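Colleagues,

For the teaching module next term, I've prepared a clean inverse folding example: a structure given as tokens, and then the sequence designed for it. I'd like students to try predicting residues themselves before seeing the answer, so please don't circulate the second half yet.
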């Protein structure tokens, strides 16, 4: 399990131990998701709960909102749709029928806000259900102990 976190340092843009902030992850799901090391740890946890698609979708939406060109936006929107949103998608997210249907209707002309409603639903699901379990998980508790022993 720890090997997953051994390469985290390469994600930092400044010389700082990426696990230095591990205690702050318990303050909020936003603190956790704003840190690359936190994203990796949370993804590992979600993988163990067979719900990794949630963070993968959320991260894909974050990247999608930064797109500047229309062709790239169309391509990325279609990839997100086919990977996460459409019925029977390989990593289908758990969203209500109306949200899924609305995205389906508008996927031929995507905008930077095409996935906002679905992303908010998945964020709420992660914050309400997954995040509290993550804080109690062996993954997070192990990182806390590892950090404390330095």
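(Answer key — instructors only)
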């Amino acid at each position: 399990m720890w090997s997953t976190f051994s390469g985290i340092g390469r994600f930092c843009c400044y010389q700082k131990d990426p696990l230095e902030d591990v205690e702050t992850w318990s303050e909020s799901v936003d603190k956790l998701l704003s840190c690359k090391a936190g994203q990796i740890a949370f993804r590992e946890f979600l993988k163990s709960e067979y719900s990794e698609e949630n963070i993968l979708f959320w991260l894909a939406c974050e990247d999608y909102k930064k797109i500047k060109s229309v062709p790239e936006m169309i391509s990325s929107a279609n990839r997100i749709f086919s990977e996460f949103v459409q019925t029977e998608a390989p990593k289908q997210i758990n969203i209500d029928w109306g949200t899924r249907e609305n995205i389906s209707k508008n996927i031929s002309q995507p905008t930077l806000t095409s996935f906002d409603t679905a992303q908010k639903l998945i964020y709420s699901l992660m914050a309400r259900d997954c995040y509290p379990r993550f804080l109690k998980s062996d993954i997070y508790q192990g990182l806390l102990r590892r950090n404390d022993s330095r």
